[in-house]
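The records we work with from here on pair a chain with its fold. The integers have meaning only within a learned vocabulary of local backbone shapes. A complete example follows; check for yourself that the lines match position by position.

:::
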Amino acid sequence: MDFFSAASHELKTPITIIKGQLQGMLYQVGRYKDRETYIAESLAVTNTLEKMVQELLTISRLDTMGYVCNKNEFDLSSLINECLSAHEDLFMQRELTVEIFISPVIFVLGDMRLLQKVLDNLLGNAAAYSPAGNHIFVKLWQNDNKAKLTIENTGVHIPDGDIPKLFEAFYRVDQSRNRQTGGTGLGLYIVKTILDLHGAEIKIENTGKGVIVSVQF
């Protein structure tokens, strides 16, 4: 009930914004006479709303009683390389340097489609919350029959009091920053839910250079 109460509140905000902008443009009220600007803003808010609805549908499916992952053995090294290639344009737009240290042919048992969602979210976060000109370090290796992945982004830190709350639904460290990036506050909640289904562990810590996410399969 707490989750759905929060979801209702979060959905109401972008709907209210879009409705106000459309009404302002329709009646040509004050600043809304500049329709081109507010059409673009309404579209951006709609995109955030669409993303939130998609994530709520994902959560609904994952949290269904009796839900079971479709697990198969697959090459995690290859999947990470594919996800990095898909994010190349984003890294370039953000003027970020990505350094990759991935051991080849590391197999894990899991739902590849869900774990791709985890990787996309973590890489997207690293890009979105790194100031231009910084670095992202992606490492994958195997030790004691466990696959270990770290993604570190430099130039930013998370307040220590916020770190334990990062995996809560709708939790945002910086409201204004999330509005700029289109964050819904659900990404890390979904990441944790998926990794729990795989018996994997995740933690987020500050480092001397920035923030590191560690995942162990």
